[in-house]
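Suppose you are handed a protein chain with no further information: no name, no annotation, nothing but its sequence. What can you learn? This example shows the usual starting point.
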Amino acid sequence: MKRYPLQTLLQLRAHRTEAARRGVLETQHVVSTCRATCSRIEGEITDLGVERATHRSRLLDAPPPGVAWPAAMAQREAHIDLLDERIGAARQRLGQAEEALRQAEAALQAARDAFFRAKGREDALEKRRDIWRDDQRNAQVRQEEALTDDLLQARHMARH
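A reasonable first move is to predict its three-dimensional structure. Written in structure tokens, the prediction is:
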């Protein structure tokens, strides 16, 4: 297996972490769009329900002059039925939008998991780099101490 320099791996991990972060942001945008769509459709259903209730309450109002009762009733009932169909269609759209929202939320959770995995790997590499640097510094300090001890011993031997 080919081993890459640590700095190159760190850059690669940082790039992957950034790509995962962007993925999370994009899926958050998709989720918010789906939520807005669901809210809009729920508002539409509410408005249609209010309109239908209003028409039902006026079902027995006197028809306009020149229009027979049976024709006015049939027209009003047909309009109420039309509103019922629109409410049914809006509920179907709401079901589809809620399913899209569930899928988007699942994708968001997967994107978050991928981000945290990538961030964890990047942090582990940085920790490894820091440990390696500390080991190098400690080795250098020990080497300098050994040289200092050797010089002191040599000086001490030269005096005696």
